[in-house]
Write a structure and sequence with these properties.
Blueprint: H1 2-11, E1 48-57, E2 64-71, H2 74-79, E3 83-87, H3 96-104, H4 107-118, H5 122-132, H6 136-163, H7 176-184, H8 186-193
Helix pairs in contact: 1-3, 4-5, 4-6, 5-6, 6-7, 6-8
Length: 225
């Protein structure tokens, strides 16, 4: 996982994206949690975000450029020579760089630490997210998500952190902190990030029912790993 993840981080930055870039595959400039009408309705909830390598090469790195595009289904994407990179529409975390971050490490504890650093300083929180390897567009929605969870779930999450509560209760359900985050921050994060671990088929330290994890593999690198 580490080798593949590092390859996508190096070869998949958003600066390598070819036009047209999907509308939501961009930094989230305004706090989506302040808009009561968000998240917007997804016109194609069963759609996919797919990629295709370009014939063009970035002159400064020698890396191939690539396309991201929304499709209503897998068959439609394959007919145009694209490969699905995650379920749902493309968003701020849909770059292959962010895929690499999700693949190479278990982020549950790391992003939680970034969240607690955010209680001290926004700059510390951003530096923490950058150190994990996220692209700048993806960092923006992670920041809004962390700030909203701190506002909505601070006490229950602080207790969870202090007591070392497991991610899942004995019955398999989420602990109270994660459930609060899921309820209060999850819908906007999923919409604007585009990519999540679940819809990219990537396991995490949080146990999820199998039907919540997209069944897929990421076998679309080029050259040597």
């Amino acid at each position: 996982r580490t080798v593949l993840g590092n390859w996508f981080i190096v070869h998949g930055g958003p600066g390598l994206l070819e036009d047209p870039i999907p509308y939501y595959a961009a930094p989230v400039e305004d706090d989506p949690y302040q808009n009561p009408d968000f998240p917007p309705v997804d016109p194609n909830p069963a759609g996919v975000c797919a990629m295709r390598w370009s014939e063009n090469v970035d002159s400064s790195t020698g890396h191939k450029k690539y396309f991201l595009k929304n499709f209503t289904n897998i068959d439609e994407s394959e007919a145009e020579g694209f490969t699905v990179t995650h379920g749902g529409h493309c968003g701020a975390c849909s770059s292959l760089q962010d895929l690499g971050v999700y693949i190479r490490q278990n982020l549950t504890d790391s992003t939680r630490m970034c969240g607690f650093l955010g209680t001290v300083s926004h700059a510390l929180m951003r530096d923490c997210l950058m150190s994990l390897g996220f692209s700048l567009p993806c960092i923006t929605i992670w920041e809004w998500n962390i700030l909203n969870t701190k506002d909505q779930c601070f006490e229950v999450c602080l207790l969870s952190y202090i007591t070392g509560e497991p991610n899942n209760k004995p019955d398999g359900s989420l602990n109270d902190c994660l459930q609060c985050d899921e309820d209060k921050s999850g819908p906007n994060f999923k919409f604007f990030s585009g990519r999540t671990r679940r819809n990219s088929g990537i396991p995490s330290a949080i146990q999820r029912p199998p039907d919540q994890v997209y069944d897929m593999e990421h076998c679309y690198w080029y050259g040597d790993l």
